[in-house]
Amino acid sequence: MKKYDIGFVTAGSIMTIVFLMIVNYLHSNDEPWFIYPAFALLLFPISLILIHKKQYTLHSIIVSILMLMFLSIINYMYTPTIPWVLYAIAPLVIWPVVMLSGKKAGTFPVALGGSIGIIVYYVLLNLVLSPYFPWAIFTTFAILWWPLAVYHVKKRTYFQFSVHGSVLIGVFFISLNAIASPQHVWAVYPIFAVLWWPLSMYYFGHKKNNGSVQ
After folding, report:
1. Which of 49, 50, 66, 122 is such that its CA lies 20 to 30 A from the CA of 58?
2. How far, in Å, CA of 204 to CA of 198, rounded?
3. How far is it, in rounded angstroms, from Cα 106 to Cα 128?
4. CB under 8 Å to 119, separation ≥6 — which residues?
């Protein structure tokens, strides 16, 4: 991308932010709604410039800081008694941390360490802010796919990935069933559907190895 393209985008973003500020002030100055599109318009040229210069680590740091600041302001302005911004801290912090690891960013140890850190953070947050329901099982389930995928993709063990992934899904649904509605055994339905993943991987892999698939 050429320099004048970046300059045009930056100037356009600034002009749009100023325009939205004026419209907000003239028609509904009791509610500063312009900050939402203005924030996106601010991130766009910053991301464009840093990515163009291939400064990916700096980009992750700046964007994470800006997003945390923006979310903290919104949290303080509208719901100061509910610190929901805390839920966004873990992913916004882990992004630049992983980027700072350099070439190790895509390795299994980094994925495992990062996922453990995020899981522990959300479990503690769950215990402190809302101990009445263990919602951390959802974040744990989602985050565990990171090291699981990295491990098997690096080793090219796709069938084993389907097996381990199916086990993870099965454990998740069984746990959710036991916690949310133990009187109804519904976990068998999604587990049965997921079983087709490793079965199909095995079947087509077996046929390919025997030369049946062209």
Report:
1. 122
2. 10
3. 32
4. 136, 139, 140, 143, 144
Q: What is the H or E stretch that residue 2 is in?
A: none
Residue type, 2: K
Average pLDDT of span 33-62: 92
Residue with tokens 């990295």: 150
Q: Burial, 28: exposed, middle or buried (Cβ in 10 Å; 0-12, 13-18, 19+)?
A: exposed
With 50 as the cut, is the pLDDT of residue 104 above it? yes
| DSSP 8-state class, residue 93 | H
CA distance 104 to 112: 12
- Between the alpha carbon of residue 24 and those of residues 8, 12, 17, the distances in Å are 24, 18, 10
Q: What percent of the chain has pLDDT over 90?
A: 79
Comparing C-alpha atoms, which of 133, 171, 168 is closest to residue 151? 168
pLDDT of residue 212: 47
With H, G, I as helix, E, B as strand and everything else as coil, classify residue 182: coil
Tokens of 182: 């133990």
3-state secondary structure of 208: helix
pTM across the whole model = 0.83
Angle, CA 84 vertex, CA 180 and CA 144 arms, to 5°: 55
